[in-house]
Design a protein that fits this description.
C2_domain_sf, 3 helices, AIDA_N, Immunoglobulin-like, AIDA_N_sf, 233 residues, elongated, six-stranded mixed sheet, 32% strand, Axin interactor, dorsalization associated, mainly beta
Length: 233
């Protein structure tokens, strides 16, 4: 504004040097926590999302973040990255997976919970764009409810032998200031059938090759899905 004011000979309003100098103090202190300006704007710690396995060096105790923070509202994260359904083609099947809910013993303590959905081949290589659900909107007893539809971005007939759909449950850990994978589940090709489905949860880190699997718990807690197949004749 100061530059434009100097260059414009027709300007009726001047932006004076004295006005510019008034901004100096504000700019110098803009990153400083000041409870008086103009209301309490306490800094929010930045969040780091780690790659699968990377968090293992930091995340030694999955339960130590339980406490007062768990009661916070948990809808501050971006609204997911879910993609629309692919265009239909004659004789080709599309799959919609509805994520109903996930059962966890400490469901009420998870902050900003969401699920990352990916499709991997037998070697763990991505076949589709990775999608993320919005943050879950409801917690009830031992369940976190998602109730979202995920459109798989590949025709069922074109999924290679040995492929699987992975569901990684993630949540924010305020003490360590990063988003951690708590557990995961996967859906194999022979399980693609219309209707409800309950699949087991496994301990992290996510093993996309499915070689070393370890159940998360012996309790009857699972990932609850519902599959819909779309096929044009």
């Amino acid at each position: 504004m100061r530059s434009a004011s100097l260059q414009c000979t027709q300007s009726m309003e001047e932006f004076k040097l004295e006005d510019l100098k008034k901004l100096e103090t504000i700019i110098e202190n803009i990153l400083t926590y000041n409870k008086e300006f103009p209301f309490d704007v306490q800094p929010v710690p930045s969040r780091k999302i780690l790659a699968p396995g990377e968090e293992e060096d930091l995340d030694l105790d999955d339960d130590e973040d339980a406490g007062a923070c768990a009661s916070e509202a948990f809808a501050s994260r971006a609204p997911g990255t879910l993609l629309p359904r692919l265009p239909s083609e004659p004789g080709i099947t599309l799959l919609t997976v509805r994520i109903e809910k996930i059962g966890l013993k400490d469901a009420g303590q998870c902050i900003d919970p969401y699920i990352t959905v990916s499709v991997k081949d037998v070697n763990g290589v991505d076949l589709n764009p990775v999608q993320e659900t919005p943050v879950a909107t409801r917690k009830e007893d031992n369940y976190i409810h998602f109730c979202v539809d995920v459109e798989i971005q590949r025709h069922v007939e074109k999924l290679p032998k040995g492929a699987a759909i992975f569901f990684e449950f993630k949540h924010y850990k305020p003490k360590k200031k990063f988003t951690s994978t708590k557990c995961y589940a996967f859906l194999e090709m022979d399980e693609i059938k219309p209707g409800p489905l309950v699949i087991e949860l496994y301990k992290k880190p996510t093993d996309f090759k499915r070689k070393k699997l370890q159940l998360l718990t012996k309790k009857p807690l699972f990932l609850h899905l519902h599959q819909t197949l779309h096929k044009d004749s």
